[in-house]
Write a structure and sequence with these properties.
With 86 residues, the chain is mainly α. It is 51% helix and 0% strand. Helix 2 (28-35) packs across helix 3 (44-52). The longest helix is centred in the N-terminal third of the chain and has 11 residues, at 12-22. The mean pLDDT is 91.
Length: 86
């Protein structure tokens, strides 16, 4: 028996990049510092992979992005929802 493939949000990378830009964070190193994750080792290259859509961030990283942007995780992963930062 095979495993069913899981839905991958197509706009997630775009939304993560938009959050960084809207927060005024110019560099990936600054974003790593803003995310400040003890649970996950984040590097500039990891953030770049998330923003390019080459890697999907773990749930704890999505949670931290949503907290920084004051949006819900649903706002991040639902392709039908436009990201509106409050």
């Amino acid at each position: 028996m095979g495993r069913a493939s899981r839905h991958t949000p197509k706009r997630l990378a775009e939304k993560l990049r938009l959050i960084r830009i809207n927060l005024g964070i110019a560099t990936l190193d600054e974003m790593v510092a803003m995310l400040h994750m003890d649970e996950v080792n984040l590097y500039r290259s990891t953030i770049l992979e998330y923003e390019r859509g080459n890697r999907e961030p773990p749930l704890v990283v999505l949670l931290r992005y949503s907290q920084l942007a004051n949006v819900t995780i649903n706002d991040l992963v639902d392709d039908k929802v436009d990201l509106v930062m409050r």
